[in-house]
Structure formats: C-alpha cells, structure tokens
Amino acid sequence: MVPSVPVSVDLVVLTVRNQALSALVWRRDNPPFLRRWSLPGGFIQLDEDLPAAAHRILAERAGLPGAPVHLEQLQTYGYPDRDPRQRVLSVAYLGLAPDLPASEKAHMSWQPVSSLTVMAFDHRRIMLDGVERARAKLEYTSLSAAFCPPEFTVADLRRVYEIVWDRSLDPRNFHRKVTKAEGFLLEAGATTTRDGGRPAKLYRRGPAELLHPPMLRSLKE
Amino acid sequence: MVPSVPVSVDLVVLTVRNQALSALVWRRDNPPFLRRWSLPGGFIQLDEDLPAAAHRILAERAGLPGAPVHLEQLQTYGYPDRDPRQRVLSVAYLGLAPDLPASEKAHMSWQPVSSLTVMAFDHRRIMLDGVERARAKLEYTSLSAAFCPPEFTVADLRRVYEIVWDRSLDPRNFHRKVTKAEGFLLEAGATTTRDGGRPAKLYRRGPAELLHPPMLRSLKE
DNA sequence: ATAATAGTGTCTGTTAGACATTATAAC
DNA sequence: GTTATAATGTCTAACAGACACTATTAT
C-alpha cells in the first residue's frame, strides 16, 4: 500500500522593477490565509511533466503567457502541515524575467521582495530561497541577462547586479569585467542615448551560460 | 478534484573508496529492470517530513544507520513514465560519506561511479546530477571534509579533491590554500606517519561552511 | 561652453600556479 | 646515509578594486 500526495508547482518569479527586486504574487481571496500574499501555483495534472506544469502555471495562473522567462527547478517543500487543510507537496520553480507589462490576471501584481514580510503558507521561505539562489547564480552564470530585455546596455546590466545584490558597483571595473568575460555579451550594433550622455552600445546575451572569470560579490561594500 | 501521486525519496550516497568516487547501489531482484543497479529509495509515509524520510531510508534501505552522512536535497524528478508501472514522483537526496564499513544490507554495495553506465529507471541521470552537484560544491564549500573521517591530513583532503574532480593538484599550493582558508580546518594536535615521510598534522572540520577564497578548479589540467 | 554618461587606461595589492627548498620521519 | 612525504618559501602572471582620464552626446 503506497500513500499518495497531491503535488503542486509554485513559482517564484523575480524581476527588477522600479529599482527593486520584485516577485510576482497574488492576494488570496479564500481561507486559509485570506488576503495574504501568495505565490502563483497549482496542482500538477496526471501525465504532466514538472517543467510543463511550471510553464502552464506561468501562463494560466500567473497570467504571463509566452513571456520570456527563464525557469529552473528550485526545491521541493514537503513537511506535512505546510498546508493546514491537507498534506501538499510543493515543487518550487524559480523564474527570472525582464521588466514585463503587468500580469493580465486580477489580484496578481509585482511586489518588492523587501515588502513581502508576511505571506501565506511557507511561501515567504520559498521566495527567500529563490532570491538567494538568484543572488548566488549571478556570480558564476550569465543569468543576470535574463532580467534584461533582448537588447540592453552595460549600465542596464550593472543596475541588475546592484539591485539584486543590494550593493553599488564601480561602473568602470564592471564594464571591463563584463565585456571581457568570454561569450557573455554580443554587440548588437546599435547604441542608445536613453540615459543621456555619451551613446551606450547595445548588447544581446552571448552563448555562455557560465562566466569565466565569475563576477564575485566581494566581502566589502 | 486533486490528483495524487506516490512520492519516493531516492538517495545518491557518494564516498571515496579505493581511489574512486563511488555510489551506494543495490541490484534489483524484481522486475522491472531486474538485476540492474538501482539507487536506494522508498516511498514517503503519511505525516513524514522529506528529510526524515531520507534519513529513514539511509538507515533502513541503505543499511547505514547512524552513519555520519551529510544529506541535502538534490532535485525532484517527475516526468510521468519514469516508472513504467505507475507514475512516481521522486525527491532525490545527495549524501556525502567518509569511507564507511560496507552496508549491512544484502545486494547493497559501493560501486565506482564510472562503472555505473547502466542503471534502472532514470537513476543514472539522478546519480550524475548528484555527482555534478558534489563536484561544484567542493569549490565553494567545505563539504570535501564530509568525505573524510573525523581526523584527517591535508593530503587526505587533497586526495578527495583529486578523485572527485579527476584532476591532479599541486600538493604545495593546495596546502597553502586550504590551511589559509578561514575556518576550514582546525588543528587536532596529533600527527600521523601512516603515509610515511615527515609526520603530517591531523585536522578536524572547522566551523566554516563557505570557503573564502573558494577552491577553484581551473580551466587547465 | 557645461553636464552627464560611456568607455579606456593606470596603478597597487592579492591570489593562483609553477616550482625550489627545508623538515622530519622510516629504513 | 637514502627515500618518502610534509610543510614553507619564492617567483611571475593574472586579476580585483580604486580611481584618473578621454569620448560623445544633450542643452
């Protein structure tokens, strides 16, 4: 006799908006945790793969169909009373997105991570785990570009690092490191003066997934 | 109506034995995959937490009760037909252990990772994901010491890195880096001449979990 | 012209990797 | 003594961080 458990997929979708690292959340309109912020999620269907469920929930529940979101599995949360109604196992996925137009769904909104101090279930823990994963991965992968639109400047990319890490970075050293890292950035050819001053070159994501050398967040401020 | 799925916990327990990175596996004695190597695993019980299930399986199924094994969640595998009999979601855990006495269980043995080219279900994929996680974590955490007995020499630790990474490392540079890394090693006071030559100091694990600076596997051999 | 931002160069201290040398045991 | 391994030291090239300087736009 093998016990079965309902399995949900919950999403920690992060973006950089208004100078703040923000997560996609919705306000619950039913008990338990009525009116608390909650991560978008849903139960997996029979014969549905986990990544497929994550993409379906991103489209249907989160209201971001077809959005260019990097999705990767985060962790699985399973202690028995994390949902007071019944035991639910939750496979969390981490999504990184550029600053998108608002979700089409009612009750769904981007909220700064720092403001989400109280959430439904164990969703705050899940969200914080996702934030820490994102912070760590910016060091040794090229995922920072997942927070940017298809074409972006070095300054755009620097602001992503500064906001996600909550640190200021020297623009000149950052420029040198990021343009020297093999396969990180490809010149798009065009420039922009949207930020004023000398025109900035536009770049696209390069083929590299891992950064050599990595962008280390040093110990000092 | 919420679909439920049986959930198993499978273990990738790794150790360094006979100059080889080895995993704890057993030979299946039932179909499907009769006689294939398989990871130790079992279904979670009602009201059982995931880490608790992992420890229970380590003791009962793997035959290593009370062994000093570092356990951490690896990943969750859920595509629908990974078990041909019925859909099973598997939460994999990674375990790192010193060279232990053999498991008490029949059919259970340590096999070199490189020899496990064919396994039951998707267990080879799971095992390789665990190996890659272990390789990566040796770089920036102090987990290498989890492969060592409570007291060990710098040379012991170096052999762990060399075998897990399949690289040779310069003993002198390794010694300098590892003894300078803050909180990595604590002198145990004693020495040993078990390897011949000048007596080597014995160390214990220090309090640090993260290494500053990290032990990078460089690009070159 | 001034202001603002982009991009390059220079200097210095730290670190990685290569490798010489010394230290302490067994035989 | 020789041999084996441990531990320390030296040198050089690469890199991080601090910061001066030049380049190109808008006003």
UniProtKB/TrEMBL annotation, chains A, B:
Organism domain of life: Bacteria
InterPro entries: NUDIX_hydrolase-like_dom_sf, NUDIX_hydrolase_dom, WH-like_DNA-bd_sf, WH_DNA-bd_sf, WHD_NrtR
Annotated ranges, domain Nudix hydrolase: 3-133
Coiled-coil ranges from the UniProt annotation: none
Position of the signal peptide: none
Descriptive protein name: 8-oxo-dGTP diphosphatase
Species assigned in the record: Nonomuraea solani
